[in-house]
Amino acid sequence: MLKAGFRGGIHPSGHKQATSGVAITRGPVPASLIVPMSQHLGAPCLPVVEKGDHVVRGQVIGTVEAFVSAPIHAPMSGVIAAIRPQVLVSGQRVSAVEITCDEDPDLDVFVRCELADSTAGAARSAGIVGMGGAAFPASVKLTPPHDMPVHTVILNGCECEPYLTCDHRVMLETPLEVIDGARLIRDAVGASRVVVGVEDNKPDAVAALRAATADDVEILSLRTSYPQGAEKQLIFAVLGAEVSHGKLPASTGALVHNVGTAVALARAVRERRPLIERVVTVTGRVVRPGNYLTVIGTSIGELISFAGGFSGEVGRVISGGPMTGMGVSDLSAPVVKGTSGIVVLGPGEVAPAVHGDQPCIRCGRCSDACPMMLQPFVLGIYANKRMWDQTQDHHALDCIECGCCSYVCPTSRPLVQLIRLAKHAQLERGE
Ligand code: SF4
Ligand code: SF4
C-alpha cells in the first residue's frame, strides 16, 4: 500500500544511482584509528585504557555510568598510541583514543559483549546508537517511561536524503536481520504493531523485506518526498498522528528506529557483536562510489582514498547528506557511529556563501515547503536581528533543520543557519 506523506516538503534530485546498485564491500583496513569518546547524544565516555595498553577488537575502551550514553569499543586490535583531544566534524572537541592497529588483522574475530538479560541491556552493552545520524543511545529508546506506552514501532527505511544509499543496501542485503531487529524492538517495548516505512523509490527493498517477513511486520511503501524520513513526518505518514507543539514524538505512542540500528541490535542480541563498524555511502566526485563497511575511527580522508580518491575538482566534502550533513574541513576527522555518508560535491554543486542580509521578497515558498508548518522567513528575520523572544513566539524550537526552506528560497537566504542560531540562543536561555 502506498501511503501519502505529510504537508510541505520538497523533491530534490536523488543522485542515488551511482551507489544504489553497488553491493556493500569492506572498506579500508587502517593502520591507525582515532576513536572519539563521544559519538552519541548524552554523557561522553571516559577512557578505561592507557597509553601503551594493547587492546583487542571489540574490547570496551570507554564507558560511563550515565543512563543516556553508550560505551565505546576498540574497532580493531592494536596498541593505544595516545589519548588526546580530537575535533569532530560537528566542531565538537572531545577526548579520543588513538590506536596503532596490529598488522594483518583478522576482522572476523572480535571480543563479544557482556551477556545481557534484555534487548535494552544488549543495546547498551554493544554501544548501539541511532545509525541514521542522530546517534541517540538505543538502550534509552528501548526503555520507554511507564507513562508513555508504545503501541507502534516504526523502522525508518526511507533514506530520503539525496546521495545516501547505505540503508537501501542494508535492507536489500540483510532483510532477515532488519526484520529480526524489528521484532526484537517490538517485543522489548511491548508494542502491538511494527511497521517498516520505505520510500517508493526503493521497490526492490520493499520486495526483499516482504519476502523476509510473515504478516506480523508490515512493510509500508511511502511516497518519495523529502524529509519523509524525519521522525515526526514518518509518524504522521504511518499513523496520521501529529506530534503536538512542545511534545516528544513518543507522545503519539510511536517509537522510531533506523533500519541500520535494527540490524546492529539483532547482531548485538544474537552474536553479542559490539558496534565497531558501519556501512558508509561514499559518493559524488570519487572514483569508485560505493557503500563501504567501515571500521569506526577510520579517517574520512582514508575512506575517500579507498574509494579511489577525488575524481575532479572539489567544492565541498560533506559528512552525511547534502540537506542535513556537515561540511568537513579536516579530512583527518574520523568516521563515527552516526556517519551515514561522505558526499563529495564539485564547485558548481555547492551554493555560494551568503549572508543574513540577503533580501526576502516575501514569496512564501519557504512556508509552503516547511514540513513543520513554520514561517521560516519570519524566523529568519527575527534571528538575524537576535530577537529571541520573537523566535520563541514563532516556535523556532519546532524546526527539525531539514533545510527545505533554504533549498527553495529564490534569494538564497541562509534560513536554516539563522533558525539554528535562534534555537541555540533559546536553549541557552533555558527554553
Ligand atoms: S524552518 Fe526548519 S523545519 Fe521548516 S523548512 Fe526550514 S529547516 Fe525545515
Ligand atoms: S523563500 Fe526566501 S524570499 Fe521567499 S519568503 Fe521565504 S525567505 Fe523570503
Provide a descriptive summary of the structure in words:
This protein is of the alpha/beta class and 431 residues long. Among the domains are: 2-21 and 130-271, NADH-ubiquinone oxidoreductase 51kDa subunit (Rossmann fold), CATH 3.40.50.11540; 365-428, no CATH class. Helix content is 27%, strand content 20%. The chain contains 14 helices and 18 strands. It has helices spanning 17-20, 119-126, 138-141, 166-173, 175-189, 203-211, 231-239, 259-271, 300-306, 365-369, 376-384, 388-393, 404-408, 415-428; strands at residues 2-3, 25-26, 32-36, 46-47, 54-55, 60-63, 72-73, 78-87, 93-101, 152-157, 193-199, 217-222, 254-258, 277-284, 290-295, 316-319, 326-327, 341-345. The strands form four sheets. Strands 2-15-14-18-16-17 form a six-stranded mixed beta sheet, with helices on both faces. The protein has a five-stranded parallel beta sheet with strand order 1-12-11-10-13, sandwiched between helices. Helix 6 links the parallel strand 11 (193-199) and strand 12. Helix 4 runs parallel beside helix 6 (203-211). The longest helix is centred in the middle third of the chain and has 15 residues, at 175-189. The protein is globular, with a radius of gyration of 21 Å. The mean pLDDT is 94. The structure holds iron/sulfur cluster (2 copies). Residues 369-372, 374, 376, 399-405, 415-416, 419 line the site of one iron/sulfur cluster.
At a glance:
This protein is an alpha/beta fold. Helix content is 27%, strand content 20%. Among the domains are: 2-21 and 130-271, NADH-ubiquinone oxidoreductase 51kDa subunit (Rossmann fold), CATH 3.40.50; 365-428, no CATH class.
